[in-house]
Design a protein that fits this description.
386 residues; mainly alpha
Amino acid sequence: MTTNEFRRYALFYLGYYGALGAYTPYVSRWVDALGHGGYVVGAVLALWYGGRILAPPVWSRLTAASATPGRWLVGGCLLALAGFATLAGAPPLAWMLGAMLWFALFFNAVMPQFEAMTLSTLGANNHAYGSIRVWGSIGFLIVAGTYGWLLDRFGDGMFVWLTLPWLALTVIAAWLHRRDAPLPQADAGPREPLWRRLGTKRLLGTVMLMQVGFGPFYVFYTLHLRANGHDGTGVGALWALGVLCEIAMFWQAPKLVQRFGAHRMLTACMVVTVARWLMVATLADSFAWMALAQATHAFGFAAFHAGVMRRMAELFPERRHMVGAQGLLYGIGGGVGGVLGALVSSVAWQHGGGGMAFALGALAALCALALHAGVARLHRAAAHQA
């Protein structure tokens, strides 16, 4: 990958995750400020993750059939920007949910395509993925670390307006890829579905359960901290700390993956994540404990994501399968897991508050660990028989 290519890919990650740095931590605060309860907050995030289920497979077929897939990337970003812009002001509930669904469909559609483009360009150097993806974490850090203070100062109604510039940046970054060549496509004719490839279902199940565990974090973490006495500046600082640790890990992840392998790396990440959600469930009134919990984001998100991407590259080494495989990971692992996490956490929030929601998150991460441990035993048994 040349320096110019690196900059083009890094810029898209910067803009995309900068927008998510506004959306993920603060959309719940905005919805709550409009007077809606926990079920509506959960529904908004469920729509977001539902977009991950519906959009990627359709989008991958459309881009695969196009001689200019880069233009589809630009179009998806433009449509996401247009849908989100209609949320300015205080829209009625039905309009808000419809606009959120529109935004979720198009914004979620473009990332699997872009991830496949990134891995295809990297080729055999896929272990260097973290050094590009880290720019997404930098964008998330800039926004998540400052928008709590900005919303405290200028009001929650500014949430949409503060998010729009980052969505505009994704359009600009996508425009730089408008002439990119199509990815190699799968051979014509019947073939086994990608999810049937050995090891794929268990990896998807592990990622899905981890995403369920992250449900309370993405939906209610900001509200949970505010309910336990932390102001907007403190909330933003905790989000920023987590992302700083994530960035540091993304720089180190290629070395760690190379040294320890994906299986051991994923195991360590899940053990740490179980402990993290238990801390958030029981010690949320302590800034120091929350800072420690956020520091573990380096493992629960960055190292875990790098390990999963390495496993995907191992399972699907053929470039022609990259778009379909990334869509599968995004839809099943992130989409189904995200919807379940949002719905379960919203019910737990309504009936038991943040403590119950994050305790269930720890349970989901523990289930992911158990499934992954079963995979490791199967690999050892297969190696012994060989």
